[in-house]
Amino acid sequence: DNxxxxxxxxxxxxxxxxxxxxxxxxxxNLLIEDARKHQQKSKDPxxxxxxxxxxxxxxxxxxxxxxxxxPESQExxxxxxxxxxxxxxDLAKEGKRLADQPLRQRFNPREPALPDFDTKPLExxxxxxxxxxxxxxxxxxxxxxxxxxxxxxxDADVQRAQRYMELEERTxxxxxxxxxxxxxxxxxxxxxxQVSNYKxxxxxxxxxxxxxxxxxxxEADALREQAPQMNLEQQTMALSQALDHLQQANELQPNQPxxxxxxxxxxxxxxxxLEKLADRLMQDPKFQESMEQQMARLEGADQALNELMGxxxxxxxQQKSEQVGxxxxxxxxxxxxxxxxxxxxxxxxxxxxxxM
Length: 356
Known about the structure:
Number of strands: 2
Radius of gyration: 33 Å
Structural class: mainly alpha
Shape: flat
Helix content: over 70%
Strand content: under 5%
Distance between the termini: 68 Å
Order of helices and strands: HHHHEEHHHHHHHH
């Protein structure tokens, strides 16, 4: 590489050209020598299949590098073709062997009543067949074996996804229900990566999305119903979470007519709560505040106003946000001048609104 760079500047320099040819020839010989050693090791009968494939991979890579250095080298070209063919053959053979193994059930100690499949050998087989297909993309037998292995893997992933749906029905908590269903959806989508437009995978994914949307909507309804009995901070948080649930439900099931009105109503209620919370946090309390408490209160107001601007922007809200920002900047500058950071005096940080 260094000599190649030097020849760009002085292409007619005979010494650089002579040295470049010498180094290139020496490197070519080293690569071919190393490739032949790996190729010979791959033929040793004592080696395991994985060792044989690894040696062939190394030989093929070295021959390929040698061919790139000197495209006219017959030895490099011949070695690359030989190792390509042998590597593709062995990868296809081992990949098909792994893919043809019966799927074994895997015991899950966290959910012993829910059987699962160990798909790792099958996934390894698919990977090997894909490598073989890249090496020999027009080989009909490799293409058939690869398609069969992908179909088998897709079937297994669909069955696993359906079992996650069964597990969700026995799961009591909303967070766990959502997590289980999302894992099932990932498996259904993984099956579609193996076999595009595969109907069982599409149907399973759609069923999971429908159930996810239902859970999100139910959780949002519960939060919306509980919100009026909460204090202002809790009410704001509950309505924010409800809005998030409804928006996720709408993304999963965009054609549900009841969702847009619920989203609109929740946004209006949340905006109202945020405005009340911001106004309260902007007011100076009746008790004496420390600088840290004042900063915490105003930071809460600033956050509420920023969220309100995202939901319901208005000149009034923008003006309040600027006022709070100016006060915060002044307090932070004052704290910096005093060499003080929040919490240094050992005082507890207040909850928004001055609650300790």
